[in-house]
Amino acid sequence: RDARLTPTKVEVYSKSSDDRHQRSFRLLQDFDNALKSNDQLSLVFQPRVNLANDRCIGAEVLLRWQHPVLGSISPGEFAPIIEQSPYITKMTAWVVDAALRQSSLWKASGIHIPLSVNISAANLEEVDFVQKIVLALLRHGIVPEMLELEVTESAIMKNAANCLAKLSALSEGGIRLSIDDFGTGYSSLSYLQKLPTTVVKIDQSFIHDLNLGHRQRNLVHSMIKLSQDLGYQVVAEGVETLEVADILKTMGCDDAQGYLFAKPLRPAEFESWFWSDRGTVYRPLKAIS
Ligand code: C2E
Ligand code: MG
Ligand code: MG
Ligand code: MG
User: Fold this and answer.
1) Which of 49, 66, 67 is closest to 58 using CA atoms?
2) pLDDT of residue 154
3) How far away, in angstroms, is 268 Cα from ligand 3 center?
4) Distance CA 196, CA 232 (A)
5) What is the mean pLDDT of the chain?
6) Beta strands of the chain (E only): which ranges?
7) Taking the CB of residue 126, how many other CB atoms lie within 10 A of it?
């Protein structure tokens, strides 16, 4: 053991961990302002494409935060912090409201696709969550079938019994439900069979290097088969190359999302993407450039 190194290591570690805590604390503090201001939070939309006919069949709603001092903060950083605080209720309400407002604008202009909103485990603990969703749909004049809620597999496993009750109520109300980041949350197969969810989104960590080896390929193929046998519609997340899209197609995967088709887009960008050839018939990126 080199004793001289130990204090330095400890110091470096605790300093950076301290910085992280300070930043988390700041983000949490400033999020209230972000919710109140009307220019810090915004939504982007990533198309979901059917692999068999290349049509855009929906879009995922993703939150963006432009902090006045710290600049753009990734939801990968702030969502987990907000999710552990009471602000998660307001954050989800904000996203649902803004998404449904967009949905109603798009409906009027002929873009009639379901939008998928990410929700967190804490939302399912709210006693009036289902009512709030139903009221938001009514307020915006959107039918429940046009809203999908994405819940991560690990969020479901956190409080399985409560989740099942809440998800059933949402599903009975006609709202679509999907299991996000599938494959990363260790759900039991017997439990998966009981969920009122209709869509499984295979996590991008399984999809990225799909072209690299047999084992990875067999694993994904099994995940697709299993999910479909249980009656799920399967979406592959993080499809970046034509090669991966082709493999997924061969495996019978239903739908896909990823940079190959489009990055998350601002509303105006989404509209031009949708009305261009790629909205209904996507062209591989290679052929465009
Ligand atoms: P997620 O729900 O699994 O969303 C997918 C993430 O993958 C998005 O990152 C998306 O931009 C990214 N992505 C899509 N296609 C590709 C691809 O081909 N390659 C790669 N490398 N990435 C791709 P984003 O927008 O940074 O969001 C990260 C996570 O933050 C989301 O993961 C979700 O868990 C959370 N999040 C985002 N918006 C919200 C929200 O409104 N509410 C909640 N509760 N969480 C949100
Ligand atoms: Mg998602
Ligand atoms: Mg995901
Ligand atoms: Mg994720």
Assistant:
1) 49
2) 87
3) 24
4) 10
5) 90
6) 41-50, 56-67, 71-73, 115-118, 147-152, 176-182, 199-202, 233-236, 255-256
7) 16
Residue nearest (by alpha carbon) to ligand 1 atom 8: 62
Query: What separation in Å is there between the alpha carbon of 256 and the centre of ligand 2?
Result: 12
pLDDT in tens, 103-131: 999 999 999 999 999 999 999 999 999 99
Distance CA 68, CA 80 (A): 20
> What would the pLDDT profile of 164-176 be if each residue is shown by its tens digit?
899 999 999 999 9
CB count, 10 Å around CB of 223? 20
- Around ion ligand 4, residues with a beta carbon closer than 5 Å are 181
Instruction: Report the pLDDT value the prediction gives residue 156, as an integer from 0 to 100.
Output: 87
Go through 273-288 and write b for each residue having 16 or more CB atoms within 10 A of its CB, e for each that does not.
bbeeebbeebeeeeee
Element (H, E) at 228: helix 214-229
Query: Which one of the ligands is nearest to 181 CA?
Result: 3
* pLDDT over 70 percentage in the chain: 90
